[in-house]
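INSTRUCTION: Work out how this chain folds

Fields: amino acid sequence; protein backbone structure tokens

Chain under study, with its fold:
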Amino acid sequence: MTDSRPASILTQADALLRKNLVFQKRNIWSNVRLVTIPFFLCVLLVVIQLLFDSQFNEDHGQCGCLNEKTCGIRYSTSDQAAFCAIPNPSQWTPLLQIPSPQYRAVTTLYLSHSSPVTFLFTGNNQSLGETLMRNMYSNSPEFGGDLANYVLGSSSLPAYTNYMDSSFISELPIYNIKHQCSPNSSFSILIHQPPLSFPKEINCVRGLNLWRNSSSDVNKELFKGYRKGNQQEKINEYTAAFDFQNTNGNRLNVNVWYNSTYKNNTVIRPMALIRVPRLVNLASNAYLEFLKGSKTKILFEYIKEMPKPETKLTLDITSLIGPLFFTWVILLLFPVILTTLVYEKQQRLRIMMKMHGLGDAPYWIVSYSYFVLVSTLYMLCFAIFGSAIGLNFFRLNDYSIQLVFFLISINLQISVAFLASAMFSDVKTATVVAYIYVFGTGLLGIFLFQFFLEDPHFPRGWIIAMELYPGFSLYRGLYELSQSAFAADYRGVNGMRWRDFGDGMKEVTCIMLIEWLLLLVSAFYIDQITYSSKHPLFFFLQSPSKNKQHHYSNSNKQISKFFVEMEKPDVCQEREKVEQYLLESTGNCAVLCNNLKKVYSGKDGNPQKLAVRGLSLALLQGECFGMLGPNGAGKTSFINMMTGIIKPSSGSAFVQGLDILTDMDRIYTTIGVCPQHDLLWDKLSGREHLLFYGRLKNLKGSVLTQAVEESLRSVNLFHGGNGDKQVRRYSGGMKRRLSVAISLIGNPKVVYMDEPSTGLDPASRKSLWDVVKRAKRKGAIILTTHSMEEAEVLCDRLGIFVNGSLQCIGNPKELKGRYGGSYVLTMTTSKEHEQEVEELVHRISKNAKKIYRTSGTQTFELPKKETKIAEVFQAVEKAKKMFPVVAWGLADTTLEDVFVKVAQTS
């Protein structure tokens, strides 16, 4: 026995996932080709790096010797000195970072001397603070002893390392900070740092200590002091600030504010050294002097770097050009995802799955998870291969940061694909646009967006605005990771870590995360109002009641009492029967339509098209109803309304007591559909199609296997291995038979068949009729066809549609009796005897009507009331004696005659 309950969300999800995995298995070589693209690009990057190393790094990036016996900086060229070994680094006197004279906080006083350098201080005890500040620098002799005894400072930018202090070798002076500067207090000293020896001028500058009442006042004043100099460097007007807090004779508790704005944001020098150690030493010595006197101090003689071995320049060119290639690699998944979604839309496979019971929740969960899984595996292969062949982008940056970034980026990409799929209905167009997006994003990123990123004058707000474009946000993240890898390789350290997660990376990660969620919600919303035909405000509308009695009683209000057009008695009788069913609220009707209408709005100046005009129809369980009519009569529009593809303009309809306007999701679990055109996956076999749709009908285990076998046998697709062939190898008739089998699997309560026998040979058509006859015992069938023979064999009742309205309804015998009250006489003679044949026929029946004539063959319509068959035979025998009769025949009215007559008179 089959399970009559609708399939659960998990069952539907399992069916869709199995189908997707099989489809992916069919595309295995396409996937292999897709994965080889990042492999190829990674190998290409490695080759570029090797070529660069051989042509540049080996020649210019190492220490050279002009003398074979000795080697060192003095024997190297200027561009090689940076790579030579330094076993004994130079010792440099510790300095303070002070503002240039024009940027100092106090510039109007002491005009005869240089402007003072200002220190702010605060704490719980002002007098103690003043004492400590006085102890920091004194009126010592102008010169004598080691430079470490003086409080020296410089306004020159600090260097990246202390191998060579820029303050001592630059043209800018070094300042000696004192309480008072006497005239001519400058002096010159000889700096001796082997192998260099040069004079350096030391200028006196007055130190000014300013008390502030609280640390918040200090903080405000320091930040207020930030300004931009001529070189666009941020300059602090104050040298430093000290908060002595609760310092007393028993404890030293001090916070030191220092100038940390001297940064160089280039790749090679991400940050300059900060001259902080001397500030800490000054505070400590000031406190020691307060406790023990001036003879007690911590002697801070010099600073120096660690010994340096000989190095070689390694410029990671792959990290510099990596953002372009890596952007292409990641975005290559976008066309794959987009074309898959658009393919399902173009082939109407999504709506086909929906009509067979696949809900929106399992579709979104499985489809989204499926794309995430495929994308994740793709990115893992990319990252693992990149690390294996030695790309620093992957090796040096923290793998967890890469994982988080790639996961967010692929989720954003999938959301964009879902949203973009709503804009395309053709796979070719979507493919072209997708690849333009891929390659255009990479090129615009490296030639435009990166230029703006590296321009310090470009407004930051515009950078953020550009990053709202998903392609640029991806490029920005890859750019940050690449720059970190480049700097890390140059310096011989690790790349990006969580502790130094830069502002740019935080910014772009947050933007991508927020965009991912917003675009995903937007894509789901558009999907609901397109595929599910929900109201644009469905989020805020209350779900209608699922009660069947409630639907029937409400529909009474919609019964039309007046009709503009005069309907025929059989059609009026059907309408009255529908109204009676609605009043009784009976559940015996499988399908119940009440005054159903569909109007298509006019376009390009054309008037509105009334496709279905107030159709009322009651279809009982176990009945097969045939819809006949010329092309464009409205048959397919009626089926599309009943299957939820389009919404009716007015009226109501019920399937198994469920309203098509409010309960379409529940209706889908009880119906089967054979559409006018075959909606199949080319790369799935017939068996795989039936397994998928069988699972959607809640068939499981042996029941599912048996149902699939029976379905394949019933439509002659079992033998010869046809059931296991991919659909792309099927003929048109085989596809049609498979569509019929899909519509009937799971024994649905109501089945819609739109011209099911189109393209079938006579044997297959006869076999198909047997299948339909068996199926109507278990449910109701609505069938459209142009084959009168098929309609007469299969249908219990027929309705002829013309111009969107039902012209007549009844069983085939009734229709032939009602609209076919005549015999058809056909006689073939020589052409000169045509007049004699016509006279003979009129003697049989005065109201006989000639309906066909060509080359001696004439066909007449004889009213049954005036015609006796015996008289026809006697007249023909008499005619044979008078002139040659080649052939003749007398036939009763066929269903085709009825169809033609009704279509022509409507």
Residues 109-113, 227-234, 264-270, 543-565 have pLDDT under 50 and may be disordered. The chain is about 45% helix and 15% strand. The longest helix spans residues 28-60.
